[in-house]
């Protein structure tokens, strides 16, 4: 057992049970009552709380309160500051120590009494990016710390920055339990450990947590809703075509079939079928905003378009222009999340049912290429592969000549 005194007139003992050590801190109850409104009531001689236990130290009997869940080093720093012995208090501490002190300060409401030391500690950790987050801790702990020490100027920006990052990384798992006792679990991707880690949001203030949930759902809706609507329209039209009285995306059956088939295959390959092909739109669970953005980014749709010189080009268009990468701290803003329909080229579909694929083969060379960002034509070898694919998958009659070349 280790005993440490912080005041020559100590009249109270704080017992710290932290395996494998056992510590007794001799402190002034008067000082504790000054710095904390909670202790003011607990330690009042006329308090209505249950009497505190007593312990004998060096032949003297003291009232005692037991703490746990905080390191002896962290508690020593707190009592040194309270008892005007701050000369030995370090200007930088570990993230876990800061978190322990923040939990205790929140519990007993003495955050202001520690000033200006929390500012030194927080600024020191922030300045030492990227190691300021200890293994096992994350943005959610920073949100709690910054809320407890909200008077520190840096903390306002900490709350903003880490809320944004957690919105981007947070994975909301499906609810568990019965109707009367439903619980949710949260996780996030840890780039350092390269794995998914559980997130404990119990310490995050409810106001911030509510904001993050709403912002996350809003951003997911802006990414997915236009694509879901477009997918549903395409699927619904496919069941009524060609007798549908609705305005079709394309009156050319070959172009529409190619567009629909490539869209559904891309959705299936990307693992998005459970919510893009569902009859009702719903925010997906079990994915982070970043994961959804990456899945949507690779969606593709293939159509046939008519060029000015009566040649056809196989066009492959990315549906939403978001380019997130792991580790980035800049979230996609609503302006960066383009609407699917607004992002589609004007002539992505053939608009005239008479502009058939066979009408323009006579006297013209039918070219099938996939446009790259530089709009350069593909090699003959790759062009041949595309031709074989179209012949096999789409069964275009008369599209290719008997020897597999391009019709002339």
Structural account:
The protein is α+β, with helices and mostly antiparallel strands and 408 residues long. The protein is built from 13 helices and ten strands. It has helices spanning 29-35, 37-42, 72-82, 95-108, 117-127, 139-148, 153-169, 206-240, 253-269, 273-276, 289-297, 340-343, 380-393; strands spanning 2-5, 12-18, 21-27, 53-57, 60-67, 171-172, 186-190, 195-199, 300-306, 312-318. The protein has a five-stranded mixed beta sheet with strand order 1-3-2-5-4. α3 crosses α4, α4 (95-108) crosses α6 and α7 (153-169) packs parallel to α8 (206-240). It starts with a strand and ends in a 15-residue tail after the last helix. Mean pLDDT is 69; it is low at 307-379 and 389-408.
Secondary structure: number of strands: 10
Strand order of the largest sheet: 1-3-2-5-4
Global Rg: 33 Å
Order of helices and strands, N to C?
Answer: EEEHHEEHHHHHEEEHHHHEEHH
Low-confidence stretches: 307-379, 389-408
In DSSP terms (H or I, runs of 4 or more residues), the helix count works out at 13
Q: How many distinct domains?
A: 3
Shape field: elongated
- Which class of secondary structure composition applies to the elements? alpha+beta
N-C termini distance: 95 Å
Reported for the largest beta sheet, the result is: 5 strands, mixed
Determine the mean pLDDT. Answer: 69
Q: What percentage of residues falls in helices of 4 or more residues?
A: 25-40%
Strand % is 5-15%
């Amino acid at each position: 057992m280790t005993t440490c005194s912080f005041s020559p007139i100590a009249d109270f003992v704080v017992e710290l049970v932290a395996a494998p050590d056992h510590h007794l801190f001799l402190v002034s109850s008067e000082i504790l009552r000054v710095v904390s409104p909670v202790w003011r009531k607990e330690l009042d001689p006329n308090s209505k709380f249950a009497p505190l236990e007593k312990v004998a130290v060096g032949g003297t009997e003291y009232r005692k309160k037991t703490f746990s869940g905080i390191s002896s080093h962290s508690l020593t720093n707190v009592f040194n500051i309270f008892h005007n012995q701050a000369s030995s208090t370090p200007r930088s501490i570990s993230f876990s120590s800061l978190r322990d002190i923040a939990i205790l300060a929140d519990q007993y409401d003495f955050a202001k009494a520690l000033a200006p030391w929390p500012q030194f500690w927080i600024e020191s950790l922030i300045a030492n990016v990227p190691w300021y987050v200890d293994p096992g801790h994350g943005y959610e702990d920073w949100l709690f710390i910054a809320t407890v020490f909200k008077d520190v100027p840096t903390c306002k920006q900490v709350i903003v920055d880490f809320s944004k990052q957690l919105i981007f990384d947070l994975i909301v798992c499906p609810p568990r339990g019965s109707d009367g006792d439903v619980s949710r679990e949260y996780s996030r991707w840890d780039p350092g450990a390269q794995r998914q880690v559980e997130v404990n949001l119990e310490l995050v203030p409810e106001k911030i947590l509510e904001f993050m949930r709403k912002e996350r759902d809003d951003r997911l809706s802006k990414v997915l809703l236009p694509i879901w609507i477009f997918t549903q329209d395409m699927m619904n039209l496919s069941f009524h075509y060609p007798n549908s009285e609705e305005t079709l995306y394309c009156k050319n059956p070959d172009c529409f079939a190619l567009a629909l088939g490539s869209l559904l295959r891309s959705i299936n390959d990307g693992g998005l079928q459970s919510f893009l092909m569902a009859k009702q739109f719903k925010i997906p669970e079990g994915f982070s905003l970043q994961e959804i953005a990456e899945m949507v980014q690779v969606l593709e749709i293939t159509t046939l378009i008519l060029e000015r010189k009566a040649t056809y080009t196989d066009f492959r268009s990315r549906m939403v222009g978001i380019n997130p990468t792991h580790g980035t701290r800049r979230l996609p803003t609503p302006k960066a999340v383009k609407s699917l329909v607004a992002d589609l080229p004007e002539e992505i579909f053939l608009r005239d049912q008479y502009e058939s694929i066979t009408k323009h083969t006579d006297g013209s060379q039918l070219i099938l290429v996939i446009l790259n960002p530089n709009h350069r034509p593909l090699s003959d070898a790759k062009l041949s592969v595309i031709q074989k694919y179209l012949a096999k998958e789409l069964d275009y009659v008369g599209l290719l000549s008997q020897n597999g070349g391009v019709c002339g």
